[in-house]
What we know:
2 copies of one chain form a homodimer.
Chain A: E1 2-4, H1 12-19, H2 23-29, H3 38-51, H4 57-64, E2 69-74, H5 81-95, E3 99-104, H6 110-119, E4 124-127, H7 134-143, E5 147-150, E6 160-164, H8 166-179, E7 185-189, H9 195-210, E8 217-220, H10 225-236, E9 246-249, H11 252-265, E10 275-277, E11 294-297, H12 299-316, E12 318-320, E13 323-326, E14 328-331
Parallel strand pairs in A: 2-3, 2-4, 4-5, 5-6, 6-13, 7-8, 7-9, 9-10
Antiparallel strand pairs in A: 11-14
Helix pairs in contact in A: 1-2, 1-3, 2-3, 5-12, 8-9, 10-11
The structure holds a DNA duplex (16 and 16 nucleotides).
Amino acid sequence: MTETNPSTPVTSGDVARHAKVSQSAVSRAFTPGASISQKMREKILKSAAELGYRPNALARAMISGKSGLIAMLVAYLDNQFYPIMLEQISRKLQQSGYQVLLFMTDPGDQDEVVSRILQYQVEGIVMASATLSSELARECARTGIPVVLFNRYVATSPASSVVSDNIAGGRLIADYLVRGGHQRIAFIAGAEDSSTNRDREAGFYHGLAEHGQTVFERMVGGYSFDGAANAARELCNRPHGERPDAIFVANDHMAFSVMDVIRDELGLRVPKDVSVIGYDDVPQAAWKAYDLTTVSQAGAEMIDATARLLLEQIETGSVHKKAAIFPAKLVARSSARRPSGG
Amino acid sequence: MTETNPSTPVTSGDVARHAKVSQSAVSRAFTPGASISQKMREKILKSAAELGYRPNALARAMISGKSGLIAMLVAYLDNQFYPIMLEQISRKLQQSGYQVLLFMTDPGDQDEVVSRILQYQVEGIVMASATLSSELARECARTGIPVVLFNRYVATSPASSVVSDNIAGGRLIADYLVRGGHQRIAFIAGAEDSSTNRDREAGFYHGLAEHGQTVFERMVGGYSFDGAANAARELCNRPHGERPDAIFVANDHMAFSVMDVIRDELGLRVPKDVSVIGYDDVPQAAWKAYDLTTVSQAGAEMIDATARLLLEQIETGSVHKKAAIFPAKLVARSSARRPSGG
DNA sequence: CTGAAAGCGCTTACAG
DNA sequence: CTGAAAGCGCTTACAG
């Protein structure tokens, strides 16, 4: 059952010949708002349908200088937060007439990725990948391609960014844990070079300090499931009194791993022996088997803002650096002891 | 901090002028294997670097007829199975020099999506979305664009497909549950029009029949979290003896929801009161809070096969219909009572 | 409103 | 090995 390229693609010239009109007319028939008579457009559309013609988006991009392509850079999709935003942002951009060119980034091939993105003449870039090659930022600024960093912030970069208030979020957690009566509050960090981790940690320490506490112990989980499990083991495989009575884990993805270790491996109870709080409020945080107390980022608003920032810059043809910050909200579930009273 | 399009893009002509060579020479310098002297290439590369030149992939696509673009159609990313495969296939295609154009499909805008895909001159299509517009399949066959259906099969479609043996998988589950001593075995279906559900269900019923059993009751969850929860409620909110003692849930994503309802809402124990088995073996199935018995699809192999089938057809320029079927494997965890003995 | 023509930035025969 | 030239399939001034 093999068929070799059945038909050479139909071009606007073919349609023109078939409809006995000029090639320009065919082009106009497919350009919204072009000056063409109703009658002519109908004739052309009919011919086009008969021949199965579709305009070549690449040719259009060439001549118009607008590819309709937006690059999305993502590092990994195992943390649910990213697939969800990828899905939503993609839908939004599609609705606005753009297409998403997906780039899975690798710590390795930075230059290669930068090169590919630019070769495809994308009109904008969304970066949800932690590793921002500074070369990419620079090249984009040079070329006038707007870049929006999603869920990260780089002070020295000319790129716009959309984040939630991770400092406030960290502080909310500290406050909640202290008011919950915890005495030995630990922290499991994500990737230490990420702005999310930096801000959550800073806010958290500040919050503790406001209550006269300091962090009981700090480990690094690197935003990975296994990294978090190791951190949890080291932290909690100790007698009562030497282990934390609460842990703030820098994101939900790691928090699930931490809860597994605490409950299943070490046989401790959550929150009775150890309270656990995560960050992101991914869908699984609401799953009853975890029922994770966490901080919700204003996901929908962040997604909207990302699309808006990007499209606005593309359409006006000017690149601004803007930073949109959305409020964070604590979602109290059962994985952390609740403050009594108040 | 606004900067308006700083520099007009650098073209091969600019580089040619700067290096005092012909434009064709510049093109050759960037074409692997082109006939050009070492000396000339170096001179050109140097000029290109100075000017910040990068070849325009769209222009190349126009003239060469190869866009380097592959469309991936995905319906939703909340079931982990899909983000993971999206990530892996994307990486594989990128490594082979292709770029992924992402299309989030909507039950609504079928024609619109079809049209966009074809306009972008993609060289191949991966469909991981359930809704295959038959128009897309037909158009692609006409145009000679290879299509690979991932994790689904449509007998009447000219598209290739990569699936695991869902019939065998369903049978494995029936066998395992019966041997585990279950007497009232229920089924919660996914999307009834999907080939995965159809095959898993068929295999499951066959397996039951081989042991002289029939399904105790059948509900439909539609592959959605909420749909599954409702099904579980109806099935299990009854006295012992009237409710199933085991449920095969057509995918893991729904199985988590079912376990939540059974344990948390209804206060029953898993597997003591009800055994639960899922399908897919997504990462979360191994999370200790669920520890879900499930059937593992040969994910890595399926991903490899998808990329291979597609690239092979692209590179040979001929479209075959091929169906790759991979074995399914039962992964025994603790959510279902294990067969005793042997 | 309509058509002929130029041109987007490349690749690739074709001569030399 | 190198360059001049044609051409990929469109959009868009420019005349009429």
